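Box S1 | Example of a co-folding query
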Amino acid sequence: MATRGFLGRRREVREDLPPGQYDTGDSWPVLTAEVTPNLDPERWTMTVDGLVERPQTWSWAEMHALPPSEYSGPIHCVTTWSKFDTRFAGVSVDVLLDAVSPRPEATHVLATSTTGYTTNLPLEHVRGGQAWVVWSFDGQPLARDHGGPARLLVPHLYFWKSAKWVTRLTLLDHDQRGFWERNGYHDLGDPWREQRYHGD
Ligand SMILES: Nc1nc2c(c(=O)[nH]1)N[C@H]1C(S)=C(S)[C@@H](COP(=O)(O)O)O[C@H]1N2
Ligand SMILES: [Mo]
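Box S1 (continued) | Returned holo structure for MTE
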């Protein structure tokens, strides 16, 4: 019994839980501001444009022909749930950026979904193995509610940065606020610094 009590307490204070967050366990809440779109993968495309040398659009098949990449680890929503041991698969944003060659003046990215949802990110936070376009979760196709057929995944920042039904990354020379950022949420959103709202 002493051992069980000890383990129970340990779970509550796990060191990889950012401040103000709780472990949602096996559940995965759905948080969507708009109506969930029903997208045909055969018509879905991924574009990287803006301040790049060669803007490019990939079809579903072309995306799957790129070198595969996986993320295993936690995700953190600003509504205070964190989910551990997630496993996503898709392609690294690095691969897409290498293909388009960002211009030196590019400093930020605006991610856009088919629905019009947008979110802004510093370019340095989607490079270096920190961001993915993913279409699989736990070995299964990504569910529509969770952004299927494909979503952005930027797990080191609050999960609102991980745009569901993502279709475009636009490189900019300035920070242009997205949907939640215009509504008071933080421009970076680092869960370890509890950057939930403007001014945090
Ligand atoms: N297109 C779109 N992407 C979105 C959102 C949204 O409302 N629309 N919500 C964001 C927020 S606030 C969170 S916490 C996560 C939720 O993803 P989930 O529903 O898969 O948990 O998606 C993010 N990406
Ligand atoms: Mo969220």
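Residues 41-193 form a domain with the Sulfite Oxidase; Chain A, domain 2 fold (CATH 3.90.420.10). The first helix runs from residue 2 to 12.
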